[in-house]
């Protein structure tokens, strides 16, 4: 996976932009595939950014890379791992609305990866909290879209935590909470990030990650459709038969 290139000629426009670029260094975050030597840094970022769930084990990380190396990515800034994402390919109509994180990822091992599937499923994306606002998550999301297009997959499916839901749980259903976030009436960073980056809200998955107390176990289901997807062509024999019958 190549690195993300900066926009030609783009210059910092404000003092805040100058400060952000100075904090990151001269180069923007770049993305590459996950390596074994990244595992400890990925686990550290997970502990810092997602204290609601335990970090992946070394066995899970190794299994993910073994199952689908192209889908495991890290974002590097100033020589350090600033974020990571993990994805697998699935046949979406075998999962759809009824899945949980454990069922679709085989408890994080990606044994459910299907090379002939039609959907890139983003199982996780984490960023170093000290580098948020510097484009790390955006860089990883863009890299996943390039992968989706390169593999000619129909879509990317991902989920977003509903981390602000717990205080509202006694007064509204989780579906109402998510809709109000979509409408801009409630701020919820995870879901708002996905919406801002072109994902479509598809509903709520109850019980998706039971240990996520802030979300009450729920997650928002989101989809990005690949505009360049080209349906596979039928075999030449089928095309010939259709032409014969039409003659």
Entry keywords:
8 helices, Aminopeptidase, globular, 247 residues, alpha+beta
Please tally the helical runs, counting DSSP H or I stretches of 4 or more residues: 8
Shape: globular
Task: Give, in spatial order, the strands making up the sheet with the most strands.
Answer: 1-2-3-4-5-7-6
Named CATH topology = Aminopeptidase
The major β-sheet equals: 7 strands, mixed
Low confidence ranges: 1-24
Whole-number total of structural domains: 1
Rg on CA atoms, Å: 20 Å
DSSP helix fraction: 25-40%
The chain-level structural class is alpha+beta
Q: Mean of residue pLDDT?
A: 88
Distance between the termini: 48 Å
The sequence of SSEs as H and E is HEHHEEHEHEHHEEH
Which CATH class is shown? Answer: Alpha Beta
Please report which band the strand proportion falls in: under 5%, 5-15%, 15-25%, 25-35%, 35-45% or over 45%: 15-25%
Architecture (CATH level 2) name: 3-Layer(aba) Sandwich
CATH homology group: Gcn5-related N-acetyltransferase (GNAT)
| Number of strand segments | 7
């Amino acid at each position: 996976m190549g690195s993300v290139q900066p926009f030609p000629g783009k210059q910092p426009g404000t003092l805040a932009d100058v400060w952000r670029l100075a904090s990151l260094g001269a180069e923007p975050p770049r993305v590459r595939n996950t390596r074994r030597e990244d595992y400890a840094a990925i686990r550290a970022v997970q502990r810092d950014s997602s204290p609601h769930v335990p970090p992946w084990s070394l066995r899970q990380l190794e299994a993910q890379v073994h199952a689908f190396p192209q889908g495991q990515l890290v974002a590097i800034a100033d020589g350090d791992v600033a974020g990571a994402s993990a994805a697998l390919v699935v046949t979406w109509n075998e999962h759809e609305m009824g899945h949980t994180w454990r069922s679709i990822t085989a408890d994080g091992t990606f044994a459910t990866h299907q090379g002939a599937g039609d959907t890139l499923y983003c199982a996780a994306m984490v960023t170093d909290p000290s580098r948020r606002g510097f484009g790390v998550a955006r860089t990883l999301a863009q890299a996943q879209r390039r992968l989706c297009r390169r593999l000619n997959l129909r879509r990317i499916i991902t989920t977003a935590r509903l981390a602000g839901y717990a205080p509202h749980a006694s007064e509204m259903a989780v579906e109402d909470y998510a809709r109000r976030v979509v409408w801009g009436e409630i701020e919820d960073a995870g879901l708002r990030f996905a919406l801002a980056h072109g994902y479509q809200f598809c509903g709520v998955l109850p019980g998706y990650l039971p240990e996520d107390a802030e979300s009450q176990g729920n997650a928002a289901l989101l989809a990005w459709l690949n505009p360049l997807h080209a349906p596979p062509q039928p075999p030449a024999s089928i095309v010939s038969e259709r032409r014969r019958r039409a003659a």
